[in-house]
Amino acid sequence: MIAWNELKQRLHQDGEFRVAARFWNATLRLDMGEASHRLRFEDGSLVDVSPCSADTACDVFVTASEAEWHELLAPVPRPYYQDLFGAQFQHGVRLPEDPIAYAAYYPALRRLLQLLSASKEVSQ
Amino acid sequence: MIPLEAVTGRYLTLELDGLPHRVYFEEAGTGIPLLCQHTAGAHGAQWRHVLASAAVTRNFRVIAYDLPYHGKSLPPEGKAWWSEEYRLTKSFLMQVPVAVARALELARPVYMGSSIGGHLALDLASNHPDVFRAVIGLEAAAATPGTYLDIMNHPRVSNAFKASLMYGLTAPTAPEPYRRETEWVYSQGAPPVFKGDLYYYSIDHDMGDAELAAIDTSKCAVHLLTGEYDYTTPLAVSKAAADRIPGAYFSTMEGLGHFPMCEDPERFLACLLPVLEKIRALESAA
After folding, report:
1. Which one of A1, B67, B87, B102 is at 20 to 30 Å from B200 when CA atoms are compared?
2. Sheet containing B134-138: which strands, arranged edge to edge?
3. What CATH number should be reported for the domain holding residue A104?
4. Nearest CA-CA distance, residue A48 and chain B, Å
């Protein structure tokens, strides 16, 4: 579904993401239906992506069914899928219960999602 | 030639909750007064495209004010506001457009607001139909519980979080520079203000069916317009409020989110102008 190497390159080259992700040291887990991936960031750079299980320890996760990821990553998302917080509020997307876990890097997460969408398009 | 715009900015002092408050406002145009209320945690710059629209200002005197604690309207000097948590109440918020209308001697103005301003449209129609000839509520509802959240004013979270959330409340089809401008305005708010405003949005504004049904639209016309991408005031919730008000007008704004006037001004004005024409036609008929 995602061209991960392509994503890594895009994140590295993206000015908005680099600004938003400065000082970010965290593990992000993306659960896309049955498939989960662990993304490790060091000082704002994505240094590793690897498949993992849905219970792998992480600092932040985004969990959704494959169908909902399809909505989130659509070029023009349907109403309320245009934002993670909104998709959590009105749809079935899940983020950590305590928003402190991701609030400081919400702008980075938001940009990451846009670049994931672009990476998905390239891989098809 | 000096490239000055037609919009002018001034201050006036209003008595609110028994204290003088110095309030900033901008205005442009002539004709029926149109008071514009910004969203929670923001300021009047959100209305800059309406203020600049010749199609609006040829028949309406547009006045966009900054609530106290927002934009250029600083906190009052007469109280130790720093020693208590900032909280916007329905009682205080309703006073502001009423006081502006009286101070500027406006004859039966039209009121328009979005988000907290949209909710306020309904509270004004219910409580002050003698002051306003019509209200236009953008993203309005009878109640929107669940958003008075501690994360909106947390020492470990910067304003960038709130601003980023607001970007997510705009429509993905809106022009990118205006989505970013909407986000930028939010990043300018004083840290406690957004959450404090949500006290009104999420708790203090709570209208029951009986209150909605009692609104007299023959005295104060009610127009509700809601964007299809607004996840905090979903279309169904907004329309449900309109359905309970006899004679209220409701319209879906396709391709718009929670900040119609600033996220996609062209699309918004296409929705707004027919409403303003209806209001103008009422005056002509009278």
Report:
1. B102
2. B8-16, B19-28, B60-65, B32-37, B110-114, B134-138, B221-227, B249-253
3. 3.30.1050.10
4. 26
